[in-house]
Amino acid sequence: MRSNRATMRAGVSLAATLPMVAGALVLGIPAAHAADHSGRGALAGTKPAWATAKADKGATANSAQVNARVYLAGRDAAGLAAYAKAVADPSSPSYGKYLTAEQAQARYGATGAQVAAVKSWLKSAGLKVTSVTSHYVAVSGDVASVEKAFGTQLHNFAKGSKTYRAPAASASVPAGLQGAVLTVTGLDNAPHKANHAEQLPPPDAVFKNAGPFSSYYGSKTATTLPSAYGQKIPYAVKGYTGEQLRSAYGAGKYTGKGVRVAITDAYASPTIAYDAANYAKQNGDKAWKTSQLRQVLPADYTKTEECGAAGWYGEETLDVEAVHAVAPDANVTYVGAASCYDDDLLDSLSKVVDNHLADIVSNSWGDIEANQTPDLAAAYDQVFQFGAVEGIGFYFSSGDNGDEVAHTGTKQVDTPANSAWVTAVGGTSLAVGKGDKYLWETGWGTDKATLSADGKSWTDFPGAYSSGAGGGTSKTVPQPYYQKGVVPGALATANNAAGNRVVPDIAAIADPNTGFLVGQTQSFPDGTQRYSEYRIGGTSLAAPVIAAVQSLAQEARGGKAIGFANPSIYSKYGSKLYHDVVDKPTGKDLAVARVDFVNGVDASGGLTYSVRSLGKDSSLQAVKGYDDVTGVGSPAKGYVDSYRRH
């Protein structure tokens, strides 16, 4: 699966992403089982939507090898979902009564007898058990053995221009194991992985911004460039720093002291400690303390070339530096996955939950909803539910391609931001003025026009849509209870009269034209590697910023974990605790001027000049009240302190 939830350097996506799938669990238990004619229990969602009769190319060879994971339902899937909801709901008597990781496993995890029964069944079919965790039993074997175990044939199906293996009918399990098995993944071999946006150079190749810049919004006007919307416009900021973002989002005296934030991505930057320390020193952030930044990494990495491992370094760097800039005393744990494949990224999330490595988890990766599969949705949402009962909240960026029409031809949301169990973080364009004063935000959406050859006008002004915050209405996830009464009916019912999940929930700075300054060791054309700074954006910025703000809120409530935050976030809707973001906050269209190096490094290759219009997010609009670009809005002064009363 491809993903485009990316950081943004030059105004196009840069970073680390992954496929994920929508919730088969909508604040409930997975609709995973139904008896078939043989008395076996069918595993709903294990036959991909693309495995149609028309696309069927015939049976897969019996000798072909399959690697699969059988995910365990645990001893009380319904109870897990119910308690995950109750413990996160401020109106519930169980609110905030979290379990330890050990208590959660003891109450809801798989029993030894369930694991033994699943292993015995798989071995009896001729499959080899390759690993066993508290979440799944992994197996390998030939197609014939897989077909025997799961009661379905595997066929080859056309998917686009390629052919992949998939079940010809839903997989099933013996009747006696229906309560033990959640789902099975790996029966189809379409790519389930995160890829970087192909149009960008990897972060290990240097990228620098050209000036002139504004040091704060509007500090330097592009007087020699053409007007836009009837007036001269400011140059883009050089990149906001921690103090500017802290002021914009009402950090006050809070620093995240004593709060643990985790970040998940694939692989690990070898220079992260140096880069983070250097960046803090160069930009006035508090110095990192010993052991304040730690990494939890796998023993081995795989698929490094296929996944473009170096391309993930910039994502980790952005996430780590953004969290520290906004919450300088929070403890940050980076959890790197062994590859960009779904299984490995899912393992990283499980590692956070199983060991309770943090209370707040920032995740800047994802995929389009059309690429989701319900089998993986069930596995992911189970981890999110275990996190909820432990007081762990997951924050996912909403995407960088607006409604996805320009990118995929189909209007859709991104996933896992569409899961009912995570906080989807949308994006804004942010104006911070002199003295770090918050001025306004628009929804992030950019139209780009370039300077004409004679320098007297902008060509085809306002230009073409280039990027913007992901959002919209899910086609697969029913509306969660916390959105009812807040999300406008026209949005909720856009794809289903009964109402579906709408993304995002909350928002923060994302526009790379009003972006964040980041520092990273990069490779220069002369072959040297050295530290360099550049402006960056994307909802890959918004997610760690919101995660950092949540760490400030957790500190404000005496260190008590916020956990799954959506019920609390929506309970504050309509108050002055949020900036109600709209696309024309001043009543007029807004734009900034950008100057870029043609070669991304220096002026030797020439310069390009462009105007970037703000608040132009595909078909999505930031309007008064809840909207599908910024959700309930961005945190305002008082938001952090409001958690003291919970």
From TrEMBL:
UniProt-listed SUPFAM superfamilies: Protease propeptides/inhibitors, Subtilisin-like
Signal peptide positions (record): 1-34
Keyword match Iron: no
Cofactors (names): Ca(2+)
A Pfam cross-reference name: Pro-kuma_activ
SMART domains documented for this protein: Pro-kuma_activ
Alphabetical list of CDD domains matching this protein: Peptidases_S53 (cd04056), Pro-peptidase_S53 (cd11377)
Record's protein name: S53 family peptidase
